[in-house]
Amino acid sequence: MTVTVKDVAKEAGVATSTVSRVINDHPSISDNTKKKVRKVMEEMGYVPNIAARNLGKRTANAIGVILPPLDSKERIGNPFYLEMINAINEEARTFQVTISVATAKTFDLLLENVRLMHLQKQVDGFILLYSDSQDPIIDYLYKNNIPFTLVGQPYKNEEDIVYVDNDNQLLGKNATDFLIENGHQSILFVTNTTHENLYFERYFGYQKALMLANLPCYPAVSMETTADLLNFESLLKETSATAVVVIDDIFALRVMQLAELSGYRVPDDLSIISFNNSIFATLTHPYLTSIDVEITQLGKKSLQKVMEQLHHTNATGVRMVIPHKLIKRETVLKLN
Questions:
Q1: Secondary structure (DSSP) of 51-80
Q2: Which of 240, 290, 304, 333 is most buried, most CB within 10 Å of its CB?
Q3: For 126-174, how does the pLDDT look when each residue is reduced to its tens digit (9 = 90+)?
Q4: Of the candidates 331, 322, 330, which has an alpha carbon nearest to the alpha carbon of residue 292?
Q5: Cβ count near 150 (within 10 Å)
Q6: How far is CA 214 from each of CA 15, 53, 173, rounded to the nearest angstrom?
Q7: Is the peptide bond before 286 cis (omega within 30 degrees of 0)?
Q8: How far is the C-alpha of 255 from the C-alpha of 39, rounded, in Å?
């Protein structure tokens, strides 16, 4: 038998309107009455009709989480996004909201999904899990004054967009500094993306570390095509590189495979350091030295920031920086 508002009201000895106000946490109801009614609701197993409540409040009580276009196996299998979704979902429970994920293979299809979610009022705001120079979605959200938090650094309108990020330039510098401290002087930066902001920032950090150490700085080694992968061995020989900084853990595993296929042993002949400290860092030997970007904190803070906007607290223009830490494992060899 389904328990109704009338059943709860009768058992608690209050009006049905009072029960409705308790469900909506209305300030006109005293704390004692709220506790009393909620206790009865729990004892009777009453579950509020969230859809009906949201319709009356004209809110969805949901946040959209937008992933970048899933256009490659590396991106589909990247644990960063799953860990982020899990962290956001955990924090969403504390705000009594749900999350809805937007995915697609192209930016055009992704924009269609996001526009539909917004126009149909399926969500109240969004969290964007990437910052890409080719992305049309951030412009759509910004121009339509839709509350959203960006995970990453925006390319423009930095003073207006709320974003949560690591200091990716410092990450790139710290990773490169660690290789330099271990005696490496010829170091490459390897990436499978050249249009995401984290690439620019981490590469700038790499350049800064090498310039400060008066060491040679090389153009970023882009591996976005099969031809690029085939050129990797010749680049290692041309530069006499003894170490590489890789854009993230999952791609670092691909780089390790390519190095070994080219006759390089990791870390004996080639040291590798990357970012994210994901589950992939310890799935194969040697274990990967990586910088932990505190994904759980990135996710939780991104949800908090979009909720601040929805509740009209002053979050506009705020940049929240999440700290990071180096996790030393087995892929960096100390040179004599």
A1: HHHHHHHT---EEEEEPPP--SHHHHT-HH
A2: 290
A3: 999 999 988 999 999 999 999 999 999 999 888 889 999 999 999 999 9
A4: 322
A5: 27
A6: 77, 63, 14
A7: yes
A8: 57
Tokens of 68: 């970048």
Burial of 203 (0-12, 13-18, 19+ CB in 10 A): buried
Question: 236 is written with which tokens?
Answer: 């290692």
CA pair distance 200, 154, nearest whole angstrom: 12
Query: Tokens 């660690």 sit at which residue?
Result: 178
CB-facing half-sphere around the CA of 92: CA atoms within 13 A:
21
* 124's tokens: 């109240």
Reported in sequence order, the residue ranges of 92-198 that DSSP labels E, i.e. its strands, are 98-102, 125-128, 148-151, 163-165, 187-191
What DSSP string runs through 222-286? E-SSHHHHHTHHHHHHHHT--EEEESSHHHHHHHHHHHHHTT--TTTT-EEEEES--GGGGTSSS
Looking at per-residue confidence, does 301 or 231 come out higher?
A: 301
Confidence at 57, pLDDT banded by 50, 70, 90: low
Tell me the two tokens of residue 18.
């009072």
- Tell me the whole-structure pTM to 2 decimals: 0.79
* d(C-alpha 158, C-alpha 319), whole Å: 9
* b/e sequence 309-325, b meaning 16+ C-beta within 10 Å: beeeeebeeeebebebe
**Which string of DSSP letters, residue by residue, matches 117-141?**
HHHTT--SEEEE---BTT-SHHHHH
